[in-house]
Amino acid sequence: MERKVALVTGAGVRLGQAVAAALAREGYDLLLHVHRSEPEALAGRVETVRADLSRREGVRELVQEALTRFGRLDLLVNNAALFWPSPLERALDDWDRFRGLNLEAPLGLAVGLAPRLRASGGAIINLADIYGERPLKGHLPYCLSKAGVIMLTRCLALELAPEVRCNAVSPGAALPPAESDPEHERRLVEKIPLARLGGAEAVARAVVFLARAEFVTGQVLQVDGGRTLV
Predict the structure, then answer these.
(1) Model-wide pTM > 0.90
(2) Is 142 a catalytic residue?
(3) FRET label pair with 37: which of 7, 21, 92, 163, CA 20 to 30 Å apart?
(4) What 3-state class would DSSP assign to 50?
């Protein structure tokens, strides 16, 4: 049988890297999008594309590469995103950047790649965030962009049915920010009913689950250790 093909954006670091590795273990051939980072070596056929998805031209370039590299596409994982704090007085200035990469890029890729995904009966999985449903103080543009990703997921599930499924994984405390300190992590864990951080692998396994779940669409799977319960 012909191997399935997945496109993962932001695949060079953190969650994207873990998702790419999990899909390689599932037997996917991979088209990995990176911006400045380098993806790790993985088994199977793996190709890399560099593009700046904060620009519409970069999104169009990635669509063209995805249409030509493998001849098919079974799974699109929209993972690439920006995250940083935004004081209220800077929110409007930051919003354009968050909107461009976190929200417009997944929309542009879904629209551009819809014909190829329809042909394969494929799926889209968006990386959302629990802060797309509950606010995080000092991060207004980021939260707003991830709320948009959640609604985008539900809209695409309707627009692309019945051929293409679209779901989202909504991480909570999976990987703390690179600059966080042990005390910050301790306080974070205290707020999680399962009393631990999930790690990138927990998110990657959720992506694999949704890629397999043939009768699930329009859903947002929270991978947060129960964080949103309290």
Answers:
(1) yes
(2) yes
(3) 92
(4) strand
